[in-house]
Design brief:
twelve-stranded mixed beta sheet; signal; DUF6160 domain-containing protein; DUF6160; mainly beta
Length: 347
């Protein structure tokens, strides 16, 4: 219960910081009765309730569009003994955590959020879970990631040139026979894994291709022969042939959440290219939270949990919230500047 209380206090501070970072101006103007009768709207804050399998939920919804840039020295949640995990490890541990980035001239590229909410889960009169989430989120999430617990799918997609650079002569021949050139676009699905390539949703320290996951061609008309050759490029033990397919989370210092190449229209309530269903939660027992995309309840294990799920874009396509190219996968991503002034990290 103490861990839930501390988490709730931290989340309230985070929400207040985000709200405080937004800018707004207003002027009180008297409205006539006729004008008032023509106005309809929704409360800035509203309360909703839910129920599932004996658990009651209370959700505080904030009708806000937030732009924030914030830094936290250490984001550590769920530090307690957990079977099969290293001593003194935590469910989520990110040093120098930041949302949003800063340019060389100290202008800010904010992390964008719409409709943040705070939700409590009750078993009787006991709080067993709390989560903070956003309908939409877009921007850079930065930090020195030590461990993650949660659901964080990644799409790796790009030209095959970095793969040729890392491949040996035999692998070059196989790729060529499969009809793959340096300009061919390949793709693969990645996520949190162990150093051996098994799926790892609890205190993961690596990300990459799960065992059995294969490279596929996104712009090829594959023949049976070509498809058979590409099937050789399936990940096993964090390798595709001799190519590494799993990498320490610490290699990725700044992760793009959502489609950052799609400019946001300031005249719309939605954030174009934003990821959906983002939430951070803490449970004292297994708790099912309602999923943004399917509207169904999804079970989350006890402890801290970060959810940045696949979501449906404006065309109804299911897409990954984080997209990398193969060069970034092999070589990592340097940290974006997240501090005003001369410092770039640790502010």
């Amino acid at each position: 219960m103490n861990s839930v209380s501390r988490f709730l206090k931290s989340i309230l501070i985070l929400l207040c910081t985000g709200v405080a970072s937004t800018s707004a101006s207003a002027k009180m103007i008297e409205m006539a009765d006729k004008e008032l009768s023509d106005v309809s709207g929704q409360a800035f804050i509203n309360l909703t309730t839910d129920q599932n399998a004996g658990i009651d939920y209370t959700r505080i919804n904030l009708g806000l569009k937030v732009e924030t840039q914030l830094n936290i020295k250490q984001l550590e949640l769920g530090k307690y003994p957990r079977a099969g995990e290293p001593v003194d490890s935590a469910d989520i541990l990110i040093n120098n955590f930041a949302l949003g980035t800063v340019n060389a001239d100290d202008t800010v590229n904010p992390f964008q959020i719409t409709n943040p909410y705070l939700e409590l889960a009750y078993d009787g009169n006991k709080v067993v879970g709390v989560r903070v989430g956003f309908d939409e989120a877009k921007g850079y999430l930065s930090g020195d990631i030590k461990s993650l617990t949660g659901n964080i799918p990644i799409k790796i997609e790009g030209t095959a040139s970095p793969i040729f650079d890392a491949a040996n002569t035999f692998e070059d021949v196989l790729l060529t026979l499969a009809g793959v050139t340096r300009r061919t676009r390949l793709q693969a699905d990645a996520g949190l894994v162990t150093q051996g390539g098994d799926s790892d949703l609890i205190r993961a320290t690596y990300s990459g291709l799960e065992n059995g996951q294969r490279l596929s061609c996104s712009d090829c008309n594959l023949t049976g022969f070509t498809d058979a050759l590409l099937s050789l490029f399936s990940s096993n033990g964090c390798e595709v042939l001799s190519l590494p397919t799993c990498f320490p989370l610490g290699n990725f210092q700044s992760l793009p959440v959502g489609n950052l190449n799609l400019a946001d229209n300031p005249n719309t309530a939605a954030i174009e290219g934003a990821a959906r269903g983002f939430f951070l939660s803490l449970q004292t027992q297994d708790v099912a939270w309602r999923d943004k995309d399917s509207n169904a309840f999804r079970n989350v294990l006890a402890g801290a949990f970060l959810n940045i799920p696949n979501y449906r874009d404006e065309n109804g396509n299911l897409v990954a919230p984080i997209k990398l190219n193969f060069e970034q996968a092999f070589n990592g991503i340097a940290r974006e500047d997240t501090c005003l002034g001369s410092a770039t990290v640790g502010c």
